[in-house]
Specification:
By secondary structure, the chain is α+β, with helices and mostly antiparallel strands. Helices cover about 45% and strands about 20% of the residues. Strand 9 and strand 10 form a beta hairpin.
Length: about 425
Amino acid sequence: MNDSSPRFQKTTLPNGVRVVSEHIPSVRSVAVGAWLAAGSRDEAPEENGISHFIEHMVFKGTRRRRSHHIAQRMESVGGYLNAFTSKEYTCYYARGLDEHLDRALDVVLDLVVSPTLPEREVEKEKEVIVEEMKMYEDAPEDHVFDHFEAAMYPHHALGRPVLGVPETVRSFTRDRLLGYIDTKYAPNRLVVAIAGNVKHDAVVRKVEKLTAELERAPQPVQRSTANGYDAEETLIRKPIQQAHLVLGARSIGLDDPRRTVLTTLNTVLGGGMSSRLSQNIREKYGYCYNIYSFANMFSDTGDFGVYMGTDAGKVERSRKLIVRELEKLAAKPVSPRALSQAKNQLKGSLMLGLESMSNRMMRLGRIELTFERYFTLDEVTAAIDAVTADEMQALAAELFAPERLSTVAILPEA
């Protein structure tokens, strides 16, 4: 596989905004993303949920457009516009035909540079987001992860929900939202990522023009280190039919050179129908429909675990089977065949994902915000190929020690 990536280019504008692009001449589409180093991790306790709240509010109007004009801007030419908030960043993104690149850049950066946050919309949106919280609480397969993250990062912003809680969300005022934007939507925290049939120099000129009035003072990204972690068991009862279980522990972050080892380990354990968890607990015992492992990696820390939905009467037996699989990985290196299959699965998934311009844009934005450099596909695949079975066993032994494992379960009411 050869990818020296001459198609990738990066420019830092005088005001600190970074522009990264990947030129794919064989397509007729473009994906544009405005990435901000501002997520729920950057919030004080009383601000919990403010990053996500602002993500909603910028769509309510800017100095140049009303709400319905924002929605129509890309949809009227067959494209789309959306946004999301995570623990460490917020992203506003659009996709459309290459001939509509200027339109996509214009509308996405307008949301970042000049939102108006109408007072009446602030009050309305509070109730909209509280309803969104209720929706997640009614989806235990999602809600169980909020409780798991609270156990992983006690009394730390990483352990608080991205949506916030009703008390904090209902306390937000327009002035507080504007104050947060002034500090977190600073030009040095903004990355504009574009993938598709684009010319970098033209994109840079357009972005420089659109962000010329972005005069907010540069703000460094300073994040508190995650605090100590002790294993715990959390059991919650709800009027549901199925039990939802997460078993896991604190792990490593993206700053750890073993991150590719962890990704490969995750693939062997629970990355698909052929994984150990699926073949043993679902196929052999028939204990569940849905089971998988996950590796959440933030800039400097992370967590690793297994999710499973099962009958309440099978929770303890299922937990023991999961622990057994973790112990096997910690006790003995995986076979050469299993390691080769996991590597091929990872590389294949990576290459198939890059057929989407949106996925390429997402990759550009995340990598730049995290590492401030670009990783070629050759570098990524070389890192996967370099993983050894002994490295995986050593990491498994470190992460899966019994005294480190936390259990979080939402169970049907007795």
